[in-house]
Here is the input.
Amino acid sequence: MNELLKQDAATVGTLLEKVKQTGVQYLEQINERSTNAQQSVVINGSLQATGAGAEATLQEFYQRFEPLMVAAGGPRYWGFVTGGATPAAIAGDWLTTIYDQNSFAVKGQGDISANIELETIRLLLDLLGLPDDFLGGFVTGATMSNFTCLAVARQWIGQQTGKDIAREGLQGPIPVLAATPHSSAIKSLSLLGIGSSHIIDVQTESGNRESIQIADLEKQIEALQGQPFILVSSGGTVNTVDFDDFVAIAALKKKHHFWWHIDAAFGGFAACSNTHKHLLQGWEDADSITVDCHKWLNVPYESAVFLVKDRHRLLQVGTFQNSNAPYLGDPLENFSFMNFLPENSRRLKALPAWFTLKAYGKNGYKDIVENCIALAQQLGAYIASSSHFELLAPVRLNTVCFALKDVATDNDTAAFLHELNSTGKVFMTATVYKGQKGIRAAIVNWRSTAADVELVISLMKQQAAKR
Ligand SMILES: Cc1ncc(COP(=O)(O)O)c(C=O)c1O
Here is the structure.
């Protein structure tokens, strides 16, 4: 055995104790940690012949990288849609690494990790109020979840004309209808060979909405004259968190022939709130749903689930099966994740989600979700009454999409945001909404409080006064 490995194996307890101590310190001080890296890293790509050992490598990490780690899991990191990590989720994540199981099979392949994954999917369905006729699995993020769902949708389209697209390849354009799809759904269509330019734009509802206009959807469906198609709908658009009318879409599905996919990456968690779950009414009739766990479930990256109706199981296996690999078993005989999603070998991604669901239960998630909604409303109320800012859309859930008033040039918004983020006390990101430059603050972290919102409001006022 390599001498350094031998030494590290003998002192692994001391090593992990140090990691724990500094990790806990980071978490305990995360409110004070900067949300913005003030400098970058000088890349040094030359690898020594003899390694430094784990202890010295840890020191190099602490010296070069640790001080630059931003509070991405902190209470005022509101850029993109960035969730935190609950204490239980962190524990589950550590254990995932310690036990290092390969979550790809259920039976006959040695370990039970896939059963934990199946149980976690059932817990999530219960949390979200979805029926258990969905089968699901964990992938790295909502992008891969959209990809997985749309891959099965592609296989379904083939089936309608007697084709097995996974084997035969695409033989013609597949119509996809959508109004405000997330960029990752468009990227998935590109990756799947469906092509992003085949999206047929459906109009949005009038009056500052991003949701599908049902009358136009019906018109576009009629124009397809019975040709099967894919509908990509939104359970929370990224700019203004608008939801499509799922009850109306479910009614259309009874009359027409299409695969219905919902991207509910973070909006799906509205199901945890008594006051907002109506936004998702009817979503249980979709063929497939994307839910991102590293967003509002507050588990560490990389974690999302795809949910596909069990009745499509054969199509799913047809899409993702490992053919010509007898050593991996018969894909149709035993359910196994490696024949059900893009990756073969995978870490036990479900464990952090299992931990946090068990630890905090339905009430815990109701509290997290309703707290974030209340904080977004608090920030939104300030913006609506401010002389410096204006809301670009009503605050529908957890995200505030706003702009500076009286901007002379396009650079004003960028300059304001740069100054605000440079304080290191808050992080928001830029966007463009209906052609207008704006700023988004998305609150999806269990740590955020009303005091955080107050602090951010005072920083916004200070920066605005300097303009
Ligand atoms: C609605 C929606 N879908 C998909 C994604 C992509 O998620 P991920 O970055 O986890 O792949 C996001 C990310 O913000 C999103 O908001």
